């Protein structure tokens, strides 16, 4: 079993070192080892809360209170989360010039914390460390919203009368056009496309690996559970991102050192 995984890691590393246009696509599974639960695994967020849809948020104060109650409960874990070995391994590949960009469904900002420049992180679902007014679109720090909620303002509003909402995409809310375009372009031009920690079930983001494979990308999936793309993968590893990614980066480093000799 271990030999088989080592063999797969060597194949992935060889493809990555061929260079050029390698793209990483991440989901909640890359951050579980940083202490942020994913949504769909047992014990994940959807076992405890129900999603508040965008139109409910916009039309009901009760829904906005429920939304912020969930966010407030998740807030302590979120602010103390740090990048784990999987984030760091991806950042090291980027530093070696082997990763063009990271497309992420995550809203936790941990790729940026691991050292990848913000312009190289395409956030499809926004970022939960900041809030935005649904009216004037002003960005507000999450700390300010947090302070207001603690003072009893359970569904805070902007001076303009708009509602303050985490700067993330809720169910039923339109996807960010620019990010989707960038992600589509990157995927279409990807040489190796590496999926880490995603069920690949949430659309439209989940369609993105399909753009890569249609254009002949070498598809790698590192995920604990099955995904609808498993049969299309050139290499599939069902394992923990925090165990596997550092091994891939180690092997890439070894190959690069070998090439330099
Ligand atoms: P998901 O919850 O649907 O699936 C996560 C996947 O990761 C599962 O298949 C699970 O088996 C796998 N996984 C869990 N731990 C893993 C590990 N250590 N190593 C490898 N795989 C692991 O997540 P999703 O497909 O990304 O989509 C859910 C949505 O949830 C996304 O849109 C995202 O916006 C949001 N979300 C984000 C965060 C975050 O920012 N950290 C957390 C929860 C949910």
Give an overview in words.
By secondary structure, the chain is α/β, with parallel strands linked by helices. The protein is built from nine helices and nine strands. The protein has helices at 2-17, 54-59, 61-80, 85-95, 110-113, 142-150, 177-188, 208-214, 241-260; strands at 23-26, 101-104, 121-123, 126-133, 139-141, 164-168, 192-196, 218-222, 235-237. The chain has a six-stranded parallel sheet with strand order 3-2-1-7-8-9, sandwiched between helices. A three-stranded antiparallel sheet has the order 5-4-6. The longest helix has 20 residues, at 61-80. The protein starts with a helix and ends with a helix. Nicotinamide-adenine-dinucleotide binds at residues 27-29, 31-33, 36, 38-41, 44-45, 105-108, 125, 197-199, 201-202, 223-225, 240-242.
Task: Summarize the SSE layout with pairings.
Elements: H1 2-17, E1 23-26, H2 54-59, H3 61-80, H4 85-95, E2 101-104, H5 110-113, E3 121-123, E4 126-133, E5 139-141, H6 142-150, E6 164-168, H7 177-188, E7 192-196, H8 208-214, E8 218-222, E9 235-237, H9 241-260
Helix pairs in contact: 1-9, 4-9, 7-8
Shape: elongated
Unreliable stretches, pLDDT < 50, 5 or more residues? none
Helical content band: 40-55%
Largest sheet: 6 strands, parallel
Q: Total helix count?
A: 9
Strand content: 15-25%
From the N-terminal CA to the C-terminal CA, the straight-line distance is 32 Å
The whole-number mean of residue pLDDT values reads 93
Name the helix and strand elements from N-terminus to C-terminus, one letter apiece.
HEHHHEHEEEHEHEHEEH
Ligands: nicotinamide-adenine-dinucleotide
Total strand count, please? 9
Based on CA atoms alone, the radius of gyration comes out at: 19 Å
Assembly context of the chains: single chain
Return the structural class: alpha/beta
Strand order of the largest sheet: 3-2-1-7-8-9
């Amino acid at each position: 079993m271990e030999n088989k995984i080592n063999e797969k890691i060597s194949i992935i590393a060889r493809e990555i070192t061929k260079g050029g246009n390698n793209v990483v696509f991440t989901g909640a599974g890359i951050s579980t080892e940083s202490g942020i639960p994913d949504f769909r695994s047992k014990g994940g967020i959807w076992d405890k809360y129900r999603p508040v849809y965008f139109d409910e948020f916009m039309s009901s104060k009760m829904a906005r209170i429920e939304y912020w109650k969930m966010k407030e409960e998740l807030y302590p874990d979120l602010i103390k989360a740090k990048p784990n070995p999987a984030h760091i391994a991806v950042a090291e590949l980027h530093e070696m010039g082997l990763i063009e960009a990271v497309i992420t469904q995550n809203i936790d900002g941990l790729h940026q914390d691991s050292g990848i420049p913000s312009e190289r992180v395409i956030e499809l679902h926004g970022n939960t460390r900041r809030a935005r007014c649904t009216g004037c679109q002003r960005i507000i720090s999450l700390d300010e919203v947090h302070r207001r909620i603690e003072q009893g303002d359970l569904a805070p509003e902007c001076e303009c009368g708009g509602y303050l909402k985490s700067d993330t995409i809720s169910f039923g809310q339109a996807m960010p056009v620019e990010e989707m375009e960038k992600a589509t372009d990157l995927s279409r031009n990807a040489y190796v496309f590496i999926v880490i920690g995603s069920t690949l079930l949430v659309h439209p983001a989940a369609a993105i690996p399909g753009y890569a494979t249609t254009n002949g990308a070498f598809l790698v999936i590192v995920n604990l559970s099955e995904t609808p793309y498993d049969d299309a993968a050139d290499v599939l590893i069902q394992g923990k991102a925090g165990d596997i990614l550092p091994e891939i980066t180690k092997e890439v480093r070894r190959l690069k050192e070998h090439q330099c000799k």
